[in-house]
Every structure is written in structure tokens, then in C-alpha cells.
Amino acid sequence: MAILMGLISALCWGSTDFLAGHVARRVGVTKSLFYSQTLGFLILSAVLVARPASMGITAFDADFAVGILAAVCNLAAMASLLKALAIGKASVVAPIVSLYGAVTTLLSLVTGQSITPLTIAGLALCIAGACLASISRSSDGKPESAASIGFSLLSALMFGLGFWLQGAFAVKSMGVVSALWVYYLTAVVILFATLVGGRRLAAPPRAIVPVVASISISSLIGFFSLAYGATTGHVAIVTVLSSLASGVTALLGFFVRGERPSALQWAGIAAIIVGVVVLKLTPQELGG
Length: 288
Known about the structure:
Elements: H1 2-27, H2 29-50, H3 62-87, H4 90-97, H5 100-110, H6 117-135, H7 146-174, H8 176-197, H9 209-230, H10 235-242, H11 245-255, H12 263-280, H13 283-287
């Protein structure tokens, strides 16, 4: 069951990133995020209404405030990711964004977690892979644009900070579902204010409604699969398999959009994925 949940999570998140890039190119990053996050918020709110026992928020406290801060970081990460996908190759952008695992690891090390040879190897693979994927020229002779690489790295940094804040503080007191609900609530409020302030709030074009619905539902299924898989006790298996999402996005970019990374870029993509997997294989998880 843990293997199945991990693979479902990777498939859902990988396809979500790919589809989100398509919508962002169509209506812009802010509107794309607003449409998908609003639907996700409504679905998750309905789940919480049906099962109020899963709501772990009892009062506004320090952990709730950290949850909001984490949500802001993750929203900034999502915006950067969509911008990168809108102007760059999904097969290169997605693996670079998956470097958030390295960022989270570094933050954990700074706050006292012990470093192991496995951790060092994982970080080295991530760094080497990012260099190869972003600097090497594609098979058409063109390097990935500097802007898409910049937004990809910014996304990785913000995801790493946001997920670290969630995991180290918010989730422990609120639970996974409540922390996720706080993210959606924060995202919807910020995006709504941004669109209203810029007088750009409008209903989504009919043509992209099915895609937006697919993004929202797929993203939620990915989160719930990861959370449910973790309850089986095989946390390492589930988290490692879920990290293959960037590989799913890269393959979709290759087969659907006809993106053709060079051999060096493929080597970099593979190195990043392997590095992220290695970083998730911590001694604590292997023992859990």
C-alpha cells in the first residue's frame, strides 16, 4: 500500500505541475493560481465540514502563525514555479524545483540535525545535477533561459523554507489536513486581493475549467496519498516515491510538448532526482 500511495502522489503532483504550466501560459500566473487554489480550498473545506474531527485548529497561536508564514512561502514558490513553467521547459524546470529537498535538509542541519555521508552525497548530486540541467544546451542547441532557471531556483528555495516551517512547527500541532487548509485559505485571500486590486478578477474561460478542476483534484489526491501512505509506517518508501514527481513532469514535457533536453541535461535531471531520493533516505526514516 505504501508503494502504491507514493506512486499515486508522484503521478498526481507531476501531472499537476505540467498542467499548471499550460494554464499559466493561457491566463497568467496569478489567475491560474487563483482558479486552482480556490477550487482546492472549496473541496478541502467541504471535507472538513463533513469530518470536523480532522480539523486540528483550536485557537490562533504561534504554530498557527507559522502555518500562515509557511503558506505565504509556498504560495510564492507556486507562483515562481508556474512562471518558470510558462517560459521554460517543464523537463528542466521541474527537476530543479525539486531541489527544495536539499533546501529543507540544509535548514534541518542548521537547526541541529546531524549530517551523514548519505546527506553529503545527496546534496552533492543535487548541486551537480542542477548545474548540468540548467547550464547545458538542449538538443536544439539552445540553453534554458536564465529567467526560467532563476524562477525555478526561487521556487525551490521558497518550497524548501515553506515545507520546513510546516513540518517542523505547524503540522505537529495542527495536523496535515489543517495545515493544508491554512495554506489554501491564505493563498485564496492573497490572490483574491491581488486580482481585485489590479481589477483583473474574472471568471475562468470555459475552455480551461476542466484543466483547472483536474489540477485542483490531482493536487489534493497527491497530498492525501502522501499522508495516508505515511500512516502505514513506511514513511521512507512513500516520501521517496513521491519525490519522483519531477521525473513525471519531465517525461510529460518530453512526450507531450516535444521538449528535447540534451544528454547532459538528462544526466543532470537524473542526478537531481537521485539526489533528492538520497536526501529523503535519512537514518531516521530508514529506521521508521
